[in-house]
Amino acid sequence: MQINGLLVIATVLISVAVVMTVMSVRDVEQTTSDINAVEDLIDSASQLRQVAVETVLFHEVRSQDQWQRKIASVTSEIDHMRITTPREKANFESIRKKIELMQIIYPRLTGGTGATLPRAATSRSELEVARETRAVASLLTVTQEVIDIGHELIRGNREQAKTAFRSMQVSIGLIILAMGALIAFVWLLVSRRILQPLRIFEQGTKQLAAGNYRHRLKLTQHDEIGDLAAAFDAMIVRVEAAALDLEKHRDSLAEVVLSRTTELLKAKDAAEALSQYARSLIEASLDPLVTISAQGKITDVNEASVQATGVPREQLIGTDFSNYFTEPEQARIGYQKVFSEGLVRDYPLAIRQTTGRIMDVLYNAAVYTDLKGQVLGVLAAARDITERKRLDQVLHEKSAELERATAAAEKANLGKSDFLSSMSHELRTPLNAILGFAQLIESDSPAPTPNQKRSLDQILNAGWYLLELINEILDLAQIESGKTTLSLEPVSLVEVMSECRAMVGPQASKRGVDMTLAPLDSTYFIEADRTRMKQVLINLLSNAIKYNQPGGAVIMAGALVAPDSIRISIQDTGVGLTPEQLTQLFQPFNRLGRESGLEEGTGIGLVVTKRLVELMGGTIGVDSAVGVGSVFWIDFKLTTAPPLARQDAEHAMLARPQVSGGTPLRTLLYVEDNPANLKLIEQLVARRSDLRMLSAADGNIGIEFARTYRPDVILMDINLPGISGLEAMKVLRADPLTAHIPIIAFSANALPRDIEKGLAAGFFGYLTKPIKPIKLDEFMDNLDLALKSSATGLNPATTKEST
Question: How is residue 6 annotated by DSSP?
Answer without folding.
Answer: H
